[in-house]
Amino acid sequence: MPELPREARGGFAKNVVPAFAYAGLVFWGGTVDLPPMPEQAAEIGWDKIGHVVAFGLMQWVWWRAIHHEFKALSVRAQSLLAASVASVLGGVLELYQGALPHRSADLLDLVADVLGAGLAAGIVIQRAQSRTQSLAASSNLTNE
Predict the structure, then answer these.
(1) Helices 46-69, 17-29: crossing angle, 10 deg rounding
(2) Are the beta carbons of 59 and 86 closer than 8 angstroms?
(3) Which of 5, 9, 33, 111 fits a disulfide with 102 by CB distance 3.0 to 4.6 angstroms?
(4) What tens digit of pLDDT does each residue of 53-106 get?
(5) pTM of the predicted model, to two decimals?
(6) What is the CB neighbour count within 10 angstroms for residue 12?
(7) Rounded distance, CA 90 to CA 4, Å?
(8) How far is CA 65 from the centre of its chain?
(9) Contact call for residues 89 and 22 (beta carbons, < 8 A)
(10) Three-state SS for 136?
(11) What residues contact 4, with CB distance under 8 A and at least 6 apart?
């Protein structure tokens, strides 16, 4: 099946702008003055789960942007680059929070950010490999 033209898949506004918008939203959310978490919620670790999910999504939106702009890179390289961008943004956010009077930097938050970005990268890579294998298998069936 031929690849759709770039315009048909969605352009810059559909693929790149959301990455910057989501990063801005995460930074905004990371700077607001929040009330302390209830003791029970802190024990469960909802904050860290939130970081894993937020930065897993961060990796995905940045992968879409990178995939759109850097087609020459393999999906693996695109995904790892997106995970790196998400992880660096997590580090910058933690440093920024450390400078705010009502927030604090937390190394475990950064670990959760990197974990979320890494897990999402693994999922993107695995799905791409599965899709490639599936396309190859169906191509072999039609050629026989």
Answers:
(1) 160
(2) yes
(3) 33
(4) 999 999 999 999 999 999 999 999 999 999 999 999 999 999 999 999 999 999
(5) 0.82
(6) 11
(7) 34
(8) 10
(9) no
(10) helix
(11) none
The C-alpha atoms of residue 15 and residue 64 are separated, in whole angstroms, by 6
Of 4, 114, 129, 106, which Cα lies nearest the Cα of 59?
114
- Domain extents in the chain: 12-27+47-143
Distance between CA atoms of residues 119 and 49, nearest Å: 13
Q: By the 8 A CB rule, do 124 and 79 touch?
A: yes
Which structure tokens are listed for 33? 């003055």
**117 near 58, Cβ under 8 Å?**
yes
Enter the tokens of residue 118: 């890494």
Provide the token pair at 41: 């919620």
